Amino acid sequence: MTSPIDIEGGGTAVVVDGEPGPEAKSEAVKLAGRSPGQLMWLRFKRDRTGVISAYVVGFFFLVGLLAPLIAKLYGKDPYTVYADERPELFDSAGVPVHPNGGISSEFWFGLEPGNGYDVFTKLIYGIRTSLMISVAVTVAVVVTGILLGVAAGYLGGKTDYFIGRVIDFLLAFPAQLFFIASMPVVVSLFVSPRDETPTYVRVVALIIVQWFLGWMGLGRILRGTALALREREFIEAAKVSGASSWRIISKEILPNVVTPLLVQATYLLPGFVTAEAGLSFLGVGIVEPTPDWGQMFSKASTELVMRNDITYMFFPGVSMIIFVVAFNLLGDSVRDAFDPKTAR
């Protein structure tokens, strides 16, 4: 009698008359002595969707990182106003005279109606700007979630009560409305309303605003994980041995919260990308001439572009969809790799 069984590292093997078959024994030998991290990596590599998503996400980060080099090889930059330098490329309304938004061998993704920026370089620099801001927000959120969530869960008592009430209070804020309303306030703390706002001030303001209302969900998850861990035998053994709270948190608890931390981080970053794009779309984030993903959507929604060049929305729109979908699929694959019992 034969029956299939699941293998820890992923896949199946056959059991013959209650005894593992040669395939199962061979797989068991391969997995023997593997650490949980190695088993996780083995399961992840066998998830074709996750691997492809990882390559797509890596491609976007590589494009953002190498944007200046790509633009140099391409021979253009996102700041040249071609409507002034080469007016023959545009009609009297500022729309590219060539079809499909001026797409050609010279301008791969066409020209922006109005100012006439090169769409290709503006897109890759926009990806760079959005990812840079979103990664910074994610790092700040992760650090805050670890510090406050783990501290609340392990220490308990008044610390847990105080941090819990702060989380409840901040969760009551409508995040998107708060982002829109608070951006001008935060910017005004650095620059007088009469002066032009530097780009770095807007970047700092975007990071602060999104971080302020972005860490609570992760903090709650890590608090719950720490609450469960502090009752485990190895934590009690560490306390009995005289280990300090800091040592227990850093050496015993933190390594055991890596799983929810990585999974949540892979869901947080695309959320911050879309939030940052939304703020720039509404005019309270990054503004021209600094390239930004959301700013391109804002430009595409204007009457001039909507009526005369619908292709302008295509490239930033498709790239945003691909990036967010790939990152979410990557998050699902990371979760499944850490928890082999999860079925998708």
SSE topology sketch:
Blueprint: E1 2-6, E2 12-16, E3 19-20, H1 22-31, H2 36-45, H3 48-65, H4 67-74, H5 82-85, H6 99-102, H7 119-155, H8 157-171, H9 175-190, H10 199-212, H11 216-229, H12 233-240, H13 245-253, H14 258-281, H15 293-300, H16 303-308, H17 314-338
Antiparallel strand pairs: 1-2, 2-3
Helix pairs in contact: 2-17, 3-7, 3-17, 4-7, 7-8, 7-10, 7-11, 7-14, 7-15, 8-11, 9-10, 12-13, 14-15, 14-17
How would you describe this protein?
There is one protein chain. With 344 residues, the chain is mainly alpha-helical. 67% of the residues lie in helices and 3% in strands. A three-stranded antiparallel β-sheet has the order 1-2-3. A hairpin with a 5-residue loop joins strand 1 and strand 2. Helix 7 (119-155) packs parallel to helix 10. The longest helix has 37 residues, at 119-155. The two termini are 29 Å apart.
Structure summarized in a few sentences:
The chain has helices spanning 22-31, 36-45, 48-65, 67-74, 82-85, 99-102, 119-155, 157-171, 175-190, 199-212, 216-229, 233-240, 245-253, 258-281, 293-300, 303-308, 314-338, and strands at 2-6, 12-16, 19-20. The chain is mainly alpha-helical.
Question: What is the number of helices?
Answer: 17
Helix share of residues? 55-70%
pLDDT < 50 stretches: none
What is the average of the pLDDT values? 81
The major pleated sheet works out as:
3 strands, antiparallel
Q: How much β-strand is present in the residues?
A: under 5%
